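Q: What structure does this chain adopt?
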Amino acid sequence: MSYKEPTELRMKAQETITEAFGATPYETLVEEIKDFAIFHIDLEGCIISWNQGAETIFGYSKDAIVGQALFTIFAPEDQAAGIPERELKTAAETGRAEDTRWHLRKDGSRFYANGATTALRDESGKLLGYAKVVRDITEHKLAEDCLRESEEFNRSVLEQSPLSIQIMSPDGYTIKVNKAWEELWGVSLDQIQGYNILEDEQLEKKGIMPYIKRAFGGQFVEFPVSQRRWQVCLLPPQPTMEPAFLQVARA
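A:
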């Protein structure tokens, strides 16, 4: 794929697609959409139309991008790997090709996008070209990355902590424990599956249950159990889980 001047061939390709799918719907709907980049690609892999959303997302004006090869908006590593050509080939063979990857803006900056390329055919089945829709999901991607890094950090802290830590669901079942907890209490997480701290009759008899229920009600409580002291506090809700409770025990 390479750059093509606005030749009669390119203009003919655009006219053929317009005739097959209608100019009015495209002009009134697609052209005005700003949240999605929507454009057509000819059989040679060159861009032949460009809506306002594409201008906003990619930074290219219609005059600057029409006639350019599709690979212009792909990252260098994807260009080298033949991703643009492979995408068109898949769309031609299966009717549709989806991708989620980094793309390039005119200024060279990258953004993370979700896109789909659809093969356009006439009534006889003849391939006329392609339509591509791209949505910028960079903020979503960055939020996911931050959340994943936060979760990985929390897991690391949990496992490496010398304190015995037990995380419980709002209804009293254990979600996670660390190695220090298993060593302190002599049981593993698998061995306490089905155990509900809020239904433990022994804790009720020992007068501990009121403290636990206060903790599950959102209060920070600390109380002695045998020769150990337990600290039970509310763990702030996380984006990927329901509110949970953190129990820290130390000798």
